[in-house]
Amino acid sequence: MHTLLLALLLSTETDAGPPMDAGPPKDAGPPKDAGAPKDAGAPMDTGLPMDTGLPMDAAPPVDAVPLMCVAPSMDAAPPANPLPDFAIARVRTQEPVVALTFDACATLKQDNGFDREVFDILKREQIAVTVFPTGRWIETHTAEAKELAAEAWIEFGNHSYSHAYMTRIPRRQAVEEVGRTEAIIAELGRRSVAFRPPAGAWSRSVVRLAATHHLPTVEWDVVSGDAGGHVAAEKMVATVLSTARPGSIIIFHINGRAPYTKDALPDIIRGLRAKGLGFATVLDLLHEPDAQPEPAQPSLLGYPPLHDSKRGPEKAKGIVDEHSPD
Ligand SMILES: [Zn+2]
């Protein structure tokens, strides 16, 4: 694990772009927002700019972060390992556990909601989970957010402020997207344990931006498909049960836009248990003694395995819309 990470980090230390990136040019010469971190608390009342075409990789502050020396900030124990220099899809481990994760996505234009029935199922089953709210979701669901924060079995992650494509927004905004939500989560009396970029759009700069807050970037390897209600409960159950394995990170939603999650979840929980799999939070997974984080597929545009041509126009937006699978 250490050797692998060290090799990965050393081999990529001078590369400002995302690993294995065959997509858009990485260093097209955009202006540098050298003072970006100062703006983390800046108001955003003018709304978010749409895609400016500015890749983040040219901005200097985050790339200077020595990942090997950064320890994630945790609610509990310090990390067993340095932060990986990639977005994590799953954690290779012999421990028969998986992590259920629930995104609570909201944008500046769309508050979405809260799936209380999902919350009640998890509470009844006493399953520790990781919830990734956007800062905007917390602001528009203050009572529910406090309710989540009061539950020790719920771990918090950071899902940006406005659900922006982190790879397609100006550097200064990207810094604010993460920092502002960290501050909002802190106001709940909690600390996030990971950063989950909307749409799974990530680059090494995004990972390093999260690392400035001592957060690993965490995606998923099992997609329930619950977002938008396009997948029936039975299909979700079959998909999750057939693809989950030890160390899997499974993505669901708890923001009122995944109507069948509550129907699928009991069978998914029952089925995973029948397969001998238990439940861990993302932080638990990362702390398994034999934990070896595995990288997510690099994606500057998001949804690498799921993307289809119908989403083409939406890709041009700076904000991930309501149909996003994450
Ligand atoms: Zn999301």
Describe the structure.
This protein has a single domain (81-315), classed as Glycoside hydrolase/deacetylase (TIM Barrel, Alpha-Beta Barrel), CATH 3.20.20.370. Mean pLDDT is 78; it is low at 1-80, 304-319 and 321-325. It starts with a helix and ends in an 11-residue tail after the last helix. β4, α6 and β5 (192-195) form a beta-alpha-beta unit. With 326 residues, it is of the alpha/beta class. The chain is built from eleven helices and nine strands. It is globular, with a radius of gyration of 18 Å. The strands form two sheets. Strands 2, 3, 4, 5, 6, 7 and 8 form a seven-stranded parallel β-sheet that branches. A two-stranded antiparallel sheet has the order 1-9. Bound molecules: zinc ion (ZN).
SS summary, helix count? 11
Query: What radius of gyration results from the CA coordinates?
Result: 18 Å
Number of domains: 1
For this structure, what is the CATH class? Answer: Alpha Beta
C-alpha end-to-end distance: 28 Å
Order of helices and strands: HHEEHEHHEHEHEHEHEHEH
Overall geometry comes to globular
Question: How is the main sheet built?
Answer: 7 strands, parallel
CATH fourth-tier homologous superfamily: Glycoside hydrolase/deacetylase
